[in-house]
Sequence to fold (432 residues):
Amino acid sequence: MYLQRNGFGVYYTRIPLSKNARDNGFPHTVRISLKTKCRKTASERNAVVSIHVLEFLKRESSFSSREVFDRDIKALRSALHGFFEGTVAFLPFDSIRFENQSLSAFEKAAPSDTTTKPSSYRDFAWLIRAYMRDKKKTAVTKKYLQQVEGRLAPLRGFFNGRNPRTLKLTDGMKYQQHLVENEWRPKTVKEYMSVARQLCDWCVRMEYLRRNPFDGVKPILSEKKAAHEQREIWTASQLEALLAQKSFSTRGSFDDMWIPFIILHTGLRPGEVCQLRVTDVRQCEETGIWYFHVSDEGPKQRIKTPNARRDVPINQVLLNKGFLDYLRRRKQDRKTQLFNCSATGKDDDWSRNFTQRFNRFLANRLGYESGNRPGAYSLRHTFINALKQSDRPEHVVADIVGHSKRAITFDRYGKPAGLAKKAAVINSVNFF
Fold:
């Protein structure tokens, strides 16, 4: 049996099956998520899971057929998860009466052994399902939805059996203390609390809740760095060293030259640049301004949030360096994509190959150590920081970089700034 961690940092137990079982059509391993990112909690749960899965594997009836095996291991997995979240009071092998019963029978019987929830209110499990259905209707990525759902899981378990409409500020404070006890970093606790607060904000708007129990909850743990200090930016000397490299001239790769240039001078996210099509580079008939059309209209194109759907003027610096000549060559070659990028992996990540290549470039050519250097995304932060330092209007900057506006009046009633206003702000930035 092995305690391992997936790509999202969540621990799981992996138990390999015997060669004889594999030869007879059964899976190679059994994997059970431990529903936690805390190693201490994971170690404790790993022991519980191992005992029950090994007991399950000892039963001859478990291997009567692949269908029975899959059905019963699914039931056991659900029981273990319910036990971790507090929705199941005991586990199948904790009681002698389950000794000769199918685990699927336990799965059906388990709800009757737990406290029956009143039907007069919607619990957090229901609210989270409704919230996730609503989120799926918006233009967000599958990875983002998985992240949100994962961060809401502790909420469902902590308030199991409670009517959400009765929760108060003190309950929100207790939940934060529960997260802190997992020995998470302050930033992680803050992220989980933020998602819980957003869920309850939505519930208040939908009139499922009278108030948000997380409003007014102050962080218990303080972060060592201020928000602006957590964002790496490129210094003037670092940019000078970067732009002096061969890749940033016409002798290098066009992708490796134009993608960083565009991020640095428009504030687009790396993924937004890499997914651009040739037809996403447009010129306004009225003003003659060239701009990037950022959207999720093309195949596998995506945007982070609804605010990310926008038109961003092309910095005059890019035009002076011959960007339109590059665009013309791509059109002549009948290319669909503006760059030689493609959606990669199960999450259709457009920027993965470029960012990996860029990180290798930083390590091999500039000698920057991993974890202690600015990266591709830092070029975007550098652009935003330059606008901030020059006191540009915040609502115009938000329209350019695809952020929501802090003031509700601007966010709900204000129309996006026009191309001319955005172009004036963008053209004030020049890192050469």
